[in-house]
Every structure is written in C-alpha cells, then in structure tokens.
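User: Hi! Is it possible to get a structure for several chains at once, not just one? Here's what I have:
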Amino acid sequence: MPKIAVVRRDLPPTLSAVVRLGAALAGIGIAILSISVILGVDAWTVTERVVGTFLRPDMIRYLIVFLPVGLGLAVAYHARLWNLGAEGQIVMGAVAAAYVALFTPLGEIRVVGPLAALLAASLAGALWALLPGILRAYLNVNEAITTLMMNYVAYSLCNYLVYGPWRGRRVYGYPETDLIPDASKLQWVHGYSFSPWSLVIAIAFVPVIYLFLYKTRIGTALRGYGSSPAAVELSGISGTRLIILAFFVSGALAGLVGGNEILMYHRKLVPGEKIGAGMGFVSIMVAWLADLNPALMPLSAYYVSALHYLRMVMQVGELTEPVARFFIGLVFMLLLVSIFVSKYKVVIRK
Amino acid sequence: MIVEELFESFFLFLLLAAVGDIIVERSGVLNLGIDGFITLIFALCYSATIAYGPVASLALVLVAGAIYALLIALFVNLLHSSHVLTGLVTNMVFYGLSVLIGYWGLDLATERGVPRTLSISTPLDWRTVLALSILAVSATWVFLYRTRIGTAVRACGYNPRSADYLGVNVWRTRLLSLVLGYIIIALGGYVYVLFYSKAWTPYIGMGYGFLALALAISSLWHPLLITLPTVIFSYLLRSLYVYQLEYGISQYILSMIPYLASIVFITAVIASPLGKKLPIPKALGEIYYKEERAA
Amino acid sequence: MNKTLMTGLLIGLIIGVVIGIVALYATTKPSTTATPTTQATATTYKPPEKVKAAFIYVGPIGDLGWSHAHEVGRQAVQALYSDWLETTYKEQVSKEGAASVIDDLVKAGYNVIFSTSFDHMDPTFEKAQQYPNVMFFHCSGYKRAPNMGTYFADLYQVYYLNGLMAGALTKTGKIGYVAAFTIPEVVRHINAYAIGAQEMGRLLGKNITVYVIEIGAWFDPDKAKEAARTLVEKYDVDAIAFTEDSSSIVEFAQSLYTQTGKQVYVFSHYSPMYSYGPDVVVSGQLVRWEVIYADILAKVKSGVYRPDNLQNVDYWYLLNTGAVELGCHIYDNGTVMMVNPKFQPVLKSIKVKDPQTGAEVSAYDYVMNRYQQMKEAPLLQSLQGTSLTHQYESLKSVSTNLKAIPKVPVAPSFDPFEGPLKGYCLLGGKDAYSRFCSGKPVNSEVVVKDGERLTHDDLWNMDWFVEWVKYMGRT
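Assistant: Yes, the chains can be modeled jointly so their relative placement is included. Here is the combined structure:
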C-alpha cells in the first residue's frame, strides 16, 4: 500500500523566495480570473485596477503602518513568541501620542512635539506589550492568548477616554478628542495621504532591525531562542531577558505606528476600533510573508499594503467590498500553501 | 425573574460557542478561526432558514461546521501551517463570504415576499435553555474526562509528542475534536440566529468568536467551569444599559471585564501551585510534525 | 543567505526609496504653490462638460440604513441626469481609509465627491485643501471650505409627529428612545419626540416620561435590541423610537408581539421597516437624499457651484423640502405609507381638543394637521441652502407695508421647538456649546420663553434635554 508522508526540507532561501513570489502572483492571477468569470466583470478592467494599484504610491499610506509593525513582530516571532497584540499596541501608542500632543506644552513645538509624541507612543506600545511579555517570561503564561485579549482591553480603554474624560470641546459631542496642534501634525505629500517623514522612519527601521537580528549577539541569541532555548541559556544569555526584550521591541514599533497614525492621519484620538482597524492583525501576515526576514519585509509590506488598499478601491459593479475581502483572503491562503511547499515535501512510498 | 434573565438564548449561544472552542483547543489547536466561522454561520443559518426552513437549515449548518473543521485540519495538520496564520486567513476569507451568503437570504426573502424577520413560534424558555446547557456542558465533560477519545484529545493538547508515543494518532484526534467542536459551535450559531437575533445584517457576529475564546480561556478550558463566566458575562453584556441608566457606570469599562478576567484567571492558575496540577493544554498552537521513524 | 548580496539589496532599496521621495516631492511641490487665485477662477471658470460624481459610504450598501439611503439617492440622480452625469461609489470606507480612497477617486477624474459620514469629515476637509479644483460635499459635518460644502436632511419634525402618536397610543405613559450617541442631532430628535409625546399625553391626561439609552454605536443590532429589551422589561416602556441603523428593534418588538402578544409600538428609523414588523410599526421617519443630490448636481452642472464658492453652502433640509418624510413603508409605485393601517382606526378613535383651534379632532387628524402645518412654508426652502440664511429660518413672518397682505409667512406656522419649554443641561462649563448651557454647571435649568422659537443655531447646538426626558448614565 503506498504511504503518503510529509517530510521536512529546507529549500535554499532564493528558491523559497521564488516559490513565495510565485504564489503571490498566482494568487492575484487566480483572483482576477475568477472575478471576471464568476461576476462577469471585464477581466481587463480588473487587471488594470490591480496593476495600477500596485504601481501607484498611494498604498505607501498603509506601508507606513505594515512595515514597522511587521518588523517588530518579526523580532518576537523569531524567538517563537506569538505576539498577536500589535492591534492593541498600536491603539495604546495612539493614546500616548494624543496625550503628548494635546495635553502637554510639547505639542505646540515644531519638530520636538512630533518627536516627543512618537517617543511616548513607542514607549506606551512597548509597555503594553511588556505585560504579556513579563507573564510569559516569568510565569510561562501563553502569550498568544494574553496579547490577543490585551487588544480588546486597549480598545475599551481608548473608547473610555474618547467617550469620557478626553471628549473634545469642539466636536459637538462626538466621541473624539479635539484636533492636535498644527505643530504636531505630519503633513501629507501633495496628492497622497502620507508624510514623507513617516516613510523615512518606517524604512529606516529595516536596516536597524536587520542589523539587530543578524549582527548582534543578542539578536543572534533571539533567533536561536526560538528553536533551542536551552542552548541559548547555556551560552550565558538569560532567556527571560530575551523574551522581555523581544516583546519590548515589537511593542515599541507597533506603538510608534499608532502614534504616527494620530500625527499623520487622524490628527485626533478616535475610538480604538477606528485607529487599529484590524491593521495590527494584517501585519502578522506581513511578518510571515517575508519569512521573518527584515530585508524582505519591505517587499511583503508593499504587497500586503497594495492588497489592503485594493480592497477599498477595487469596487466596480458586482465586485463589492466583501467580494474583494474574500478574494484577498484566498490569495493569503495560497501563500500559506506556498510556505508549506518551501518547508516540506510530500513523498509517496510504496 | 432572575433565572429568565440569566438563561436566555444569547447565553446558550455563547455557552455552546465556548464549549465547542474548549473541545477544539483541548486538542492543542489554537482556534482563532472561530471568529470567521461564527460570522459565516450566522449568515448561512439565516439564509438557509429563509430558503429551506429551520430543519434543513440545522442540518446544513452542522454540515458546514464539519466542513470548516476539515478545512482548518487541512491547514494545521496536513500543511503544517501555523495555527495563528491559519486562523487569521480563514477569518478574512469567511468574513467576506458571509456577506455574500447573507445577501442571498435577504434577496430570497424579498423575492418570495416573506418577512425578513424569521418567525419561530416556539421561543426557548429558561428551562429549555438550562436543560440544554447542562446537557452540553456535562456531555462535554464526560467526553473529555471519561472516554478514551477524550483522554487522547487532552493528551494531544498537553503534549502531542508523548501522546504519539503512547499510540495516539495526533492528526486524527485533532481532526476529530475540530469536527466535534465546530459542530457544537455551529449549533450555537443556529441558536443565536433562530432564537435571538432572528435576522441578519452584514458582518454581524464579528468579535463574538474572540469573546468565546476569551471565555474558554478564563475557565481554563474546563467544560464545567465555563458555565460561570458565561453566565456572568452574557448577563453583563445584555444588561450594560441597566448599569448605565441607574449607576452611570461607563459601558466601556464594563466591556473590558471578560478580557481582563481571562488574563487574570489564566495567570493566577498557572502561577499558583494548583496550576501545576491542572492540565491545561500546554501545547496550544504547537504545529505537530511527525518525524519519520527509521524504516 | 549571501551577506554581501543582502547588504547590497538593503542599501539599494534605501537609496531607491529616498530618491523616490525626493522625486515625488520635487514633482508635486510646485502644484501646491501654484494655486490659482479666486479671481482668476471666477473669470475663467467653465462648468464641467460631464459631471463625474463619486459617493463614499461608511457602511455596506445593504438594503436599508444610512448608506443604502444615500445609494438610493445616487441611483435616482444617475437616472435623472444620465445625459451628463457619471457616478460611482465606494462602500465600507472606514475613517482610516477615507483619505486614500479620495486620492484614488480624484486620480480617476471624479470632480464632485460626496462623503457621507461624520467619520469622513476630517479626511475630506484636509483633502479639500489638497485638491482645490475638486468639489467636495460632506454630509452631517460642520467643516466647510471654498471647495467643500455641507448638507443634511433633518428629521426632528418627523420625530415630533412620531412622538404625538406615541403619546396617543401609550398605556403606561412611559416612552423609550434608543440613541446611538447623544450628539446634538440625536438630542434634538429625542427632545422633539418627547415634546410630541408630552403634548398629546397632556391632552389625554397621561403623565409622560421618556427614557433614553445611549448605545454608543450607529450600527449595532445586538446592543440596540438589548437596550430596547431593557426599556421594555425594566422601565415598563411601551413605545419606542430609535436612532440606530438596523431593523433590530423593530424585529425585537415584532417577535415579542408574536410570541407573547405584548404590544410595544415602534417607529421605524430612516428606512422603510414596516415589512420587518407589520404588527408593531406605527409610523416612522424616511429620508430622500435625492432631493439634495439633484439640487447640488444641477447647480454644479450649470456653474452655480464652483470649486471656489462653496464656503457657505450648507443644506439643512426639513419636512417642507420633501427630503424627509413621515412614514414607515414605500409601496412599489413610490407612494408612502405614513401610518400603518393597523393602527389608523385606533388613532382615529382617540379624540382630543386641539389647543390651537379649540376644535375636537381625532389623534390621527391632529397628527396630520401638524404635518400639514410644517409641510407648508413656501419661503423657507430658499433659506435652507446656505449658512448665511439659516438665521432667518425661525422667523414666523415678515411684514410688508401693504394693507391687503400685511404679513408674509417665512417659517412653518408650527414648530415643536417653541416655548414655553423647560429642560436641563447635559453638559456644562466649557464643554457645553449652546447659549443655554455654556458657562453653567451641568443640570442647570434651561428655560425657553413662551412664544420664543429656537433658531437654527439653537437646534444645531442642542446640549440639553426637556424636563421629562430621563437620561441618567453619561458614558
């Protein structure tokens, strides 16, 4: 009787990247094809829309979110720490940035204001991630669960603030704070909805995280900790500290993004669900698509940002928002299969 | 009367969803896909009831639960995908799909000229709800703690490798508990649509899956303990406004409670000496790769 | 992986991005500085040959609710002006995506953009600065710019009429309202509903109390249902109006009726919801955005509205314009069911004495008389299109020097917000925004003098409840 078995293998990184890229392209191809066949939308229209979205810089507005959060998550995932709390960390970063910009004199000062707000945001995100980090490091509490739950706590906390004590005086009773001072705003590039400075900051983290993970002793230990914690401990590096560091870094980057969302986009604190908007969860895909490699993260963030933007703007005729969501989900599903292909192979034995 | 307040169709839905989640997670599968499934099942149940009536709808919903379980199993067992990614991706797909399915039912109702609100003549009274929830909870307990398969399920969640050495087929056990769990979750969705909401609107159900997950955690995946947090929270959720009207307590503070409670409970249990003895699924989210034996 | 290759890739990437940003900046910078002056636009402005209008919705179009009502409006004007109008829409555009969706629409050549949610206000306002040649119209907000106007169709008069019916039908004298947020718009609707209920209740010797629950969401079927249930079970309420986008409360009342026979009267909100609760829906509020869209687009096409003169364009359309309507169902031929036939006999059998005329009429006729009074205001509509003329809307009449016709009516001869009214402040101090409450402590008494009619500003800034509204919990 032939026996089917799944065997581990290691594709060379280049080949693995090719497989992933192939899946990404094939996924889009299949989506376009099935949309035009099932819904009868002209295939050329859809293709034009998809290619157009991938080529236009509009999606940088989302890249600025996904890239740093993805980088941060990669740090945690390298150590096999399931930080699912980016969403909440983004929200808490936003809360801190809004606090600095609105309620401290720093908010009125150019350059210093935004920098202070972003710093506070990173710190808030890091601290928010630290709680699950400490629970994991000292008590071995499952971090996937605690981080997931912390998202909802962050939502509620932010909502409490905007519905209650922080509700603005010039917002006619809506659950929002007042606008932050002009000095704290990061202005948009003309014709687009992102700030060049935010993009620079986002890109700057690519080499920083890359060098941290691959060129420092701590980074190497972090990467090793995932597969063999014991070996790392033996080399004299405390596992507890590594865990806390990983959470701190990934929380800080998510918090930074949350702060940036306030300074660059919302310009006021709004209810938590509207700040995170599920982007913290999508970022998890970004990290894994790049195989946790910071150098490839810009590519995967670019791909996911374009898809994310596509969902909003693709709507033509029968191709409504839920349909777009469905197909983008399918593209991601195909990517999961590609991850499998690059890590395992199926063998049939007689 | 207070019992009528407590044991109501929404409670039953939440309890079934949480109990189903317990069965799934006891086998070590981190069940993030539950949120997309609940969104899907609300839409499917609504549309199927409009199209084929409540009985056929029940059958269809249960089958859908089994199929969804097979899909998750395909990814986490066969394709060795990360449980987290599988959950997130299936959520994305099925959030979208749910809207298409729901509109099918709404359109059908308009076409046939039937009211869009489902009319079920027999409401679930508190005795039925209580009886059904006791049944669900105790059956799950018996299954997990008093049967061979249940022991195997728990072993897979605790330590799949040693379970394997003891002769348990991890993949098959996880598949089984996924199917069983999702059928129960689907049943919960059926209760919600037919006896609680009686209607459908786009994306309704988003978030309830994660709430069920939180409840399961806060009971440490124990099918008997789950009753307490579910009773409390389902009541709290449905009576937020009483507190608002009478005491002026912010509903945003109240709505943090289940999530905070799940964190506090799990930490307390793991940290206390008692926790060492309580066999919670320690291998939750672990991809099980069966090394090929030398042959 | 090859280290040198990796480092090379990285450096290349960073350099590429930096060059890209610089290039982007260089190419786009001049266009911001070269904004044409208003005078230049005024002399050279040519109305567009073809108007391309895009509509941005916050929710799914669905088949009822806020976004659906706007979609009805879009399709109506599309059919009406098919010769020169092209439209599109984007649904489910959340706050964090609004700005980049506008970018996309502008790039696709849309020259008129309607954004239809409060969530879109800030992004639309900022984008209006960026695209001075595109016309923006925003629904429900308060920010305007030379190329951004605002519009709104308000339902307060209809809520008052619903309140009259609730007051006539209630047996317990306890009336409920499920509110999304206690923003001025909703506060106004609650007050109007409460004023109607109390007016009718007093004539019938009932003691009316209105209980309000705020659920903190525009769309949340489960929360809305639980709020309605709380009102019915805990506060003995038997008539409910609401501001929430789903039919959930209607469904709740209908299943309560079919299962236990308990009658709770409901007023459908925004969309025709009669079919969801034929045994419980009495009447409701309907909206026709096409009335406003047809007007705006015709003026855009004819060059009346230009990208430099929208600063004062502010539509505030009431019952007299037809943009809002009393009713709970729209028949296939487009006519409206104003009151559910099931409840018409009851309302016709209740007799009251109209304080205005002294005549004894049925509750049904009473409602219809008031409806007619508010519907007739020939001069009003011209005032409702710009922010400058809103101040005249509350004038009852203007005088002439002619003996034959000494007075010309302006506002409707009846308005629910006319003194004597007593209320209490929801907000106080610097948080309050109305002339009644700003600078005073919370819960201060509000007094509207006999015969004084509230102005547009008073309505727009309403931050107080009338006395018989019970709203304890502030979230």
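The CA atoms of residues 52 and 86 of chain C lie 5 Å apart. Chain C touches chain A through 58 residues (CB under 8 Å).

User: Great, thank you!
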